[in-house]
Design goal:
alpha/beta, Rossmann fold, two-stranded antiparallel ribbon, AB_hydrolase_1, hydrolase activity, AB_hydrolase_fold
Amino acid sequence: MPLTDSPQRKLWREAREPTKPYLRFASSAPPSKTPLESGPSWQHHAPPMGPQLAAVGPAITAPRFRTTLPCCTRPRSRRLTSWRRAALPKDEDYYLIDAEESIGDGFSFSGGKYGEGPSKSDEWFAQGKMVNAYQIYGDKGKAKDPFFGLTMGSESQSSDDVFRWFCVEAGSSSNPKVLLIHGLPSQAYSYRNVMPVLSDKYHAIAFDWLGFGFSDKPQPKYGFDYTLDEYASSLESLVNAVAPDKLSIVVQGYFAPVAVKYASEHQDKLNHLVLVNPPITDKHVNLPSTLASFSNFLLGEIFSQDPLRASDKVLTSCGPYLMKEEDAMVYRRPYLVSGSSGFALNAISKAMKKDLKAYIESMRNILRSNSWKTKTTVCWGMRDRWLSYDGVEDFFGGLNQKIVELPMAGHHVQEDRGEELGNMIKSILR
């Protein structure tokens, strides 16, 4: 037997509808609009009730039920981690990606400012200087982008004759020199917590490779093609410019084979070589998927133009790489202000995919050669998600070379445990 649809039941059913709560009046006059009735167009309010409800009793207020948004407009409650979350205007780390154009060629991004005040990137740049090193080959005119053949902006063009490298120094120039070499993809900024530790006893120098950070980022085929052979030759030019006398070298990650090639040809200049998570075994010859994706045909060019994919995703996929938002913005900056950084990353990823195996084999032969006399120490972040530790101890242990393990660090040790690595380097060099 069907239930009688009494006035009370009608009122209860209408109150269950997902609408803004409103007052029902036992009066023949329609209720005046209240602030409760204002809202988005998708909110539909029930019509005012007529005098037929007067017999029900005194004026009734509908129960307050929480309004539910349609699934397409319902906000997510999950809070993103700090390095993925765009800060709110009241936060200290507030930044504006869509601000007015400042620098860059604007090929893929506007080159916006990060905020009205000084940023970590500005502060870091103020600490460094530009060093001219490595001659530019040929004269092929103005660089053009690989998609449409449009002439790119100044940041994508080669210098007139010699490349410009961004270098930061710490400590007295009279102290023994230590050259700090970052890996792929990273910047000299990754050594920001290492350099102060070394500065009391050493003259520490960190630099951005060509194609990274604040150094020149020429368009491939217009002065620099980002091959490993070119990187090895350019490293020699830079060392001659910043450290003409003896020095020690600390190199991290996938640029270790390049540094070892240079060291093998200039052992008389080296006091010590420190390798930090270098690719050395047969398992290390293939790039991790996050790096290899930039070498894919067409997709690589597209992926490399995404600042979060090219910086945050790559850096955080290799270990416990936790950064504050202000530090993450330093790594994003090159990809935000110009398309040149993305094209450089795309080119070096292709070069690594092609030549890394041969360079690793060469590095292994150099290190186990009887002619290798340079003191060598290996520091290994045990939480490296890119390079397996299996076989590393067997190789270096067989050469009687010291291995220092860092249990809490990943692939980019200098970022994860900067002060710890700095003290370790001091102990090794001492």
